[in-house]
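# step 3/5: fold
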Amino acid sequence: MIYAIPILIVVLAVVFISLSVKIIPQQKVGVVERLGKFNHLLTPGINILIPIIDHVRTYHDLRVQQANVPPQTVITKDNVQVKIDTIIFYQVTGPEQATYGISDYVYGVRNITTATMRQIIGKMELDETLSGREKISTDIRVALDEATEKWGVRIERVEVIDIQPPSDIQDAMDKQMKAERSKRAMVLEAEAAKQDMILRAEGNKQSQILKAEGEKEARIRQAEGVRQAKELEALGEAKAIQSIADAEKLRIQLLREAGLDEQVLTYRALEALGEVANGAANKVFIPTKAVETLGSIGAIGEMLKGSK
């Protein structure tokens, strides 16, 4: 009995400490009720409670959570049943409202998601539903935000994971997709053939242009060579004529310096004509102006004889 009292005191102290001291991890809070009424929140770290009077109603995780909504079969505007699978990302922002605003906010979020999904899909046709995942997600999120705001829950994101139409419609869609792919392949093949023909024609055009340009350049160069050759030939002929004229001018000048006048030169020319005419087959044509000088031939001859 002497040792039982201290042991009892130690046990009571341990129980008292365990009931009065609460250690809360990061990103979690506890809702504390005092005598059945909300009193305060337990924050991360060490918290002191009054045993028996204070009671922790529940704990909330403040991190972003996810809730999978079971696949729902809904009917589209054109009376086609589709199965939609969604997932919701949410976060508790008001632990007090999440505790006392609704009994189970996760269950409420799922129910609102299902109801909203049926309303949204009922206004959309099948093709619009299959291609409108983003619109469906946005509409569901807006509807959830309006409902969960008073629950202390914020909807972070709503994702439509899968939309499954009936098997017969899926088969028809697969056939349509294959036909569409075949059509696109044929169009691409035709476009490729068209581009190939265009490129070939463009290549032939460029080749002909380059060939014509080359022939034009060759003709221009050939003509330029002919022109230069003619210019050089004409220049040579001009120089030759100039040389002959200069020689003739020098000869005449030398004859004049030797004391021979025009009459003597005429006489010498007639003598040469006479020698030429001595041939049996030679005919000599004398210009009219030369006849005028014939009258003085005798006098010229006499003068020449006297000089000898």
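# step 4/5: annotate
The beta strands are 21-24, 28-34, 37-42, 45-48, 54-61, 65-75, 81-92, 153-164.
# step 5/5: archive (pending)
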